Amino acid sequence: MMAPFFKYGLFGDQTSLVVAFFIGIGFGFFLERAGLASARKLMAQFYLTDLAVFKVMFTSIITAMLGLTYLSWLGWLDLSLVYLVPTYLMPQVVGGLVLGAGFVTGGYCPGTSVAATATGRVDGLVSILGITFGMFVFAEAFPLVKGFYLSGAGEAMTIPKAFGLPYGLVVFAVVLMALGGFYGAGILEKKIAARSGE
Amino acid sequence: MTPELFITRHNELVDPFVQVWSWQIPVYLFLGGLVAGMMIITGFSLVKGRYGERSCICSALPGVGLVMLSLGMLALFLDLEHKWYVWRLYTTFQPSSPMSWGAWILVLVYPVLIASWLVRPPALLEDLSQTVERASAWLQARPQAVRAMGAASLGLGVALGIYTGILLSSLGARPLWSSGILGPLFLASGLSAAAAFTHMVARNEHERIEMARLDNVALTAELGILALLMLGLFSGSAPQMAAAGLFMGGAYTAPFWVFVVALGIVMPLIIQNLAVAHRIAHTPLAPLMVMTGSLALRFVFVQAGQMSHWAHGVLGVIRH
Amino acid sequence: MTTTTGDRRPQAYTNPYLAGIGLGLVLLSSFVLVGRGLGASGAFNSVIAWAVNAVAPAHARSNEFIAGYLGDGSASPLKSWLVFEVIGVFAGAMLSGLLAGRTKVMTEKGPRVSVRMRLAMAFAGGILMAFGAALARGCTSGQALTGGALLNLGSWVFMMMVFAGAYAVAYFVRWQWR
């Protein structure tokens, strides 16, 4: 049996929606467990008082990345069948900056706004309304931004492929970077706590 | 049997594949089931003699039931092809016609609902009419009669609830519906929706907790009956297995498992168990999920049933 | 909606590393089961596509961005993977919040800002995020988290830019929280 199961036809479109729902439950559950359904907890990341966002995000990235790498080395998963969002460098640079600005303005990102609403946060609900409205405006304005939206190569591109590095080496470097980041985050949090304690 | 003969009979042009019911029938079945559950709950509180208190749920529930039932009848009327001949349903009784049964059950349901409302009518209604006040006083002086009426409400509620399911299972042309267990299923679902509604609106703390418990029992029963229904279909003939397949990878898999089972039964069951155990407060959240799930169950079964066909699973004909 | 009953205090959040491992395993199971990662903003696109298509079908078809979410028109745009996943996110977060006694109807804000102002900022932030996510073809979940684990070049660039954009603007909106 080879993964991804859906791509090998183990179940159909309809069942994949049920799977999506249950995966979503896991996603929402752990987001809330970690505190990422609270704008104050999320925003603490950007005022450096609590780096939970960074820790959660990078722990899950390396967990999933290592899992994928091992499964693919064992030959149980065909990595080439896992969907990669195509890379359009410039739109993604600008999109990232705009989303980051929106994130600190609104207090949530799209996924966490849903989790926040589910736990009764009114600002989460309003954030959802804002995203929906913004998406509508973007869709209506699409002819104006289409040129920029499509600028770039638009192909599936990974870091190892782009820089000609071995996959395993990049995985290793990311893990090292994350571990260094976790260590640094711990020191930073202690320093800031000590300063605000004075 | 030669394929030609077979195809002549089980051809989708001969035995047409039709979607004749849209939103009206599911809504009617939902409201019918909801009122059935309300009658059971009202009947129970009348038999128990709870009507002595103003806060008794029996003071409000029959009135709400009357409104809901009338809305349901309106939905059913909208579905009728020949609307101006609706009165003809009452010139005959056809034992083999579920429509005829339904028409006559409803004739009994209305007076019982009205009578049980009069036992302890809301203060507003009493102020409005002297007759109501007198009728109520007359009934309250006769506990025996009230108890008998409570029993009638209970019995009719069960009958109405089962009828909402049997209406479908009497239509043998659809393999998904050809199971008598649809009666108990729709009864359990209607009772759970009614308990949820009562849980949401009850003013009496004791009754509210009791309703949450009743709802949990009804939801658990509903899960069990759904499992039995699936087992029955999967151990049936090829078309029945194909009909069950509509929920197991087929066209209605996602709505069934997500909106009916997960969000309509399992989640509210967890939330209400937490509430009953005093871990969290009682809120309208779980009841609303239960009622939505109950409505979704009717939609999914009416729509998927119309899609299920005796030619499916035979001769390799499986559409979806 | 729900408030915690008197004597029960909300539980403390799970250790971020543990929660991160849990989230990572959910993401991994998504890769293994369906061959794609998590997401959120795409669900909003589907909802918009569905709504515009319901009101003005011809207009929806003529707009390339919306048409991309309509598919061949045989199935409702709401029957999309991300829409069901986001419904799951809602249910999962609700479950976790209720179990931990953290669910409460409230607006998250600092002491010096009015609720109305905070909600206006949440709405404005939402609009910005929609633009960012649409341009980048994903948000923090679909790009940063998912693409991060896949070593997707565009996703890593996006992730760095999100942090850059957020830290750059954070100073100017700090009055919301302090």
Polypeptide structure, described:
The complex is a heterotrimer of chains A (198), B (320) and C (178). Chain A has helices at residues 13-34, 39-44, 52-73, 89-106, 110-118, 122-140, 142-149, 159-163, 167-197. Chain A has 198 residues and is mainly α. Chain A starts with 12 loop residues before the first helix and ends with a helix. The model of chain A has no long low-confidence stretch (mean pLDDT 94). Chain B has twelve helices and no strands. Chain B has helices at residues 3-9, 24-47, 61-79, 98-119, 123-128, 130-140, 143-169, 182-201, 205-234, 238-245, 253-276, 285-307. Chain B starts with a helix and ends in a 13-residue tail after the last helix. Residues 316-320 of chain B have low confidence and may be disordered. Helix content of chain C is 65%, strand content 0%. Chain C has eight helices and no strands. Chain C has helices at residues 16-34, 41-55, 57-62, 64-70, 81-99, 115-136, 140-149, 153-170. In chain C, helix 2 packs across helix 5. Chain C starts with 15 loop residues before the first helix and ends in an 8-residue tail after the last helix. Chains A and C meet through helix 1, helix 2, helix 3, helix 4 and helix 5 of A and helix 1, helix 2, helix 4, helix 5 and helix 6 of C.
Indicate the multimeric state.
heterotrimer
- By DSSP (H or I, 4+ residues per run), the number of helices of chain B equals 12
Major sheet summary line of chain B? none
Radius of gyration of chain B: 21 Å
Q: What is the number of helices of chain A? A: 9
The biggest beta sheet of chain A is recorded as:
none
Mean pLDDT of chain A: 94
What secondary-structure arrangement, pairings included, does this model have?
The complex is a heterotrimer of chains A (198), B (320) and C (178).
Chain A: H1 13-34, H2 39-44, H3 52-73, H4 89-106, H5 110-118, H6 122-140, H7 142-149, H8 159-163, H9 167-197
Helix pairs in contact in A: 1-5, 3-9, 5-6
Chain B: H1 3-9, H2 24-47, H3 61-79, H4 98-119, H5 123-128, H6 130-140, H7 143-169, H8 182-201, H9 205-234, H10 238-245, H11 253-276, H12 285-307
Helix pairs in contact in B: 2-3, 2-7, 2-8, 2-12, 3-4, 4-7, 7-8, 8-9, 8-12, 9-11, 11-12
Chain C: H1 16-34, H2 41-55, H3 57-62, H4 64-70, H5 81-99, H6 115-136, H7 140-149, H8 153-170
